[in-house]
Design a protein that fits this description.
Layout: E1 10-11, H1 15-20, E2 31-32, E3 35-38, E4 45-51, E5 54-59
Antiparallel strand pairs: 1-2, 3-4, 4-5
């Protein structure tokens, strides 16, 4: 497993998150990691991220490996509807 992201870095969620979550819990293309903790979870690493205006802990397994530059997305904080192809 690659090294986890650090607070302040941005990660990309796997599309399955938005495909299976309520619209109010959809994540944008680039998600800022607010905090990181190790603990009992599927991967052993949890990220604190903002979902629908509030902070929540998600297993790092919901995110693609590596970090991203949010500037590469036209609207990094906006969620797209990912139900299409």
């Amino acid at each position: 497993m690659p090294d986890p992201a650090k607070p302040g870095e941005h990660v990309r969620p796997y599309p399955l998150w938005n495909q299976t979550s309520r619209p109010s819990r959809h994540l944008p293309d680039a998600v800022k990691v607010l905090d990181v903790r190790r603990g009992q979870s599927q991967t052993g690493v949890m990220y604190l991220v903002e979902i629908g205006g509030r902070a929540d802990w998600l297993d790092s397994g919901w995110f693609l490996p590596g970090t991203v530059d949010p500037a590469q997305f036209s609207e990094p904080g906006r969620c797209r509807d990912r139900r299409g192809p």
